[in-house]
């Protein structure tokens, strides 16, 4: 059987000038997720490029601080929906365009697979990892191309994700939120950020926060003695891979052991009640007592743990009396009394009372001590109701003052450079100032890649990265779009859509008929948001009972948000080293003819429910090398469907239904192999080139996904894809190397 030859790709960027392509742009349906910094620029650039059918989703409302870069918005829009306003404004200067806004969360059930299938392109301008992963999965399920983007200050990136051809958004590990080893924070800080995190997460919480927030960290430190633990904030968009690595690996075993003993000693010596203000204790005396403990006694004790200081100088203790003579302490009391009389409340500021008005100027050690004492006392005097439940907030001036002073004092113990209030605030709040120009460049790149996809110039697709300092004289660096990673937890296996009545079907029905019978799972582990269900060995009796109690409950009413429409249920079987995501599509009108079992499962079933072979890579090879004739036919059919842009994956499901009931187990396994094998070819070819041609960040996946790796992106067509891939690999330097890159002077130093 001869596979149809893939038509040659149109030339890029020549295709842009053809009339047909201009029409294609005009009629293309585009979904923009996000109408913020990137989204505003993107919407503008899309209509300027000729796109006319755009839908935009954004949950947020406009804030004053957005106005310096989200140029679709004006002052009178503050408080209004970003999506609605952006749509109206763009429509205003491009009346011919149809812009449909949704002031909503993209994770809502109504934005389901069917919704995504309505679009030719999905373009992300999102600011959080969770939503980006969600959109990635829906694009994979709906088989729609996704152009992803992110910016952080001067850094930015645009990546292209096409199922089965390029890696999905989750193929490469995203930088975990930055973490710092607890023992570094507690014992051996050597960077400003270490003392800031210590001040914010350890000292602030201990003095003003909820008691459990303190004990959590202390327990962890005592227990792990230097394992990384405390998380430093958030999803930094963009610039991925550069700063993502945790610093935990830097420590030697001896240092860990030493730190463990130091931490254990400290934990023993520490009585948390020491940090509580005693009955009748004047606020400033309390603050001075804390100072003496934290900056004098504790530092002296740490300095005595010799093992810690073999490779670095020990810290020097501070003495309050030297930093702040009694006369100055008396002045603090007067300032505190003044604030109490004025009823300063939430607006109280130690800096204001001390006349430290310049936020960019570093304080002297004496000023740091004064701010620390006064800020601590102010909390107890003018904001006493918050003590015991406060959480650090970068917009709370008093909290920032306290953290700045506390951090600087600790820095001076360790010889670490001190920070101004402004800088400390940025570090503590993890603020990276957004830059309009970066958003504009990134939006232009998104549209460029979108046009290539639309034109079918897939060999010209590029992932593009914006850097803050030049790399090979370039600030904008393109890279050939990467191959899917076969072992990806998300795209390395097939996604299924389950049409089922979530109101009436109990969990027992799902587990029995779908998970065990249809998917041949032995020991199911089901996860979806806050919902968890497990079976198999190793469960405690009470756990088993708790899970059994869930079985009669309807899917929609299960704990943790339920399994309603749009929910993505992660099904795993540790015993089989296999897993799959099942997208729930609530359907009430299933006829007994179409769905004799009460549900319809759509999507090619993945490969290999056999137990994982001892050596995982070897196992993958075997699976990939044996596509049956049936699988090839299916793969060919899938290609035809791909070309038409329409999906009829229910076809393969119908086959299942016909065959069911005969020698069930053996049949099922065979079907799975047949249906999955076609996709495995693509995945295997991808693996062969992918592994040499790029470096991957650390593999975050555990070993739960070993066998799932075989079931590649879906849709099949291994040979054709292989050919295209080869072309992509060997293609001459792309036009956008000349057009799309800013080449700047080497001499420039930033
Ligand atoms: Zn992936």
Automatic annotation (TrEMBL):
Pathway: Protein modification; protein sumoylation. Pfam families: ThiF, UAE_UbL, UBA_E1_SCCH. One of its GO terms (cellular component) is SUMO activating enzyme complex. Residues 498-590 form the Ubiquitin/SUMO-activating enzyme ubiquitin-like domain. It comes from the Eukaryota. Zn(2+) binds at residues 168, 171, 488, 491. Residues 19-466 form the THIF-type NAD/FAD binding fold domain. Residues 219-263, 605-750 are annotated as: Disordered. Residues 652-663 have a biased composition (Acidic residues). The active site is at 183 (glycyl thioester intermediate). InterPro entries: ThiF/MoeB/HesA, ThiF_NAD_FAD-bd, UAE_UbL_dom, Ub-E1_IAD_1, Ub_act_enz_dom_a_sf, Uba2, UBA_E1_SCCH, Ubiquitin-activating_enz. Residues 386-425 form the Ubiquitin-activating enzyme SCCH domain. ATP binds at residues 34-39, 58, 66-69, 82, 127-132. Coiled coil: none annotated. One of its GO terms (biological process) is protein sumoylation. The keyword Magnesium does not apply. Keywords: ATP-binding, Metal-binding, Nucleotide-binding, Nucleus, Transferase, Ubl conjugation pathway, Zinc. Residues 626-644, 667-690 have a biased composition (Low complexity). Residues 230-245, 718-728 have a biased composition (Basic and acidic residues). It is found in: Nucleus. Residues 705-717 have a biased composition (Gly residues). One of its GO terms (molecular function) is ATP binding. Belongs to the ubiquitin-activating E1 family. This is SUMO-activating enzyme subunit.
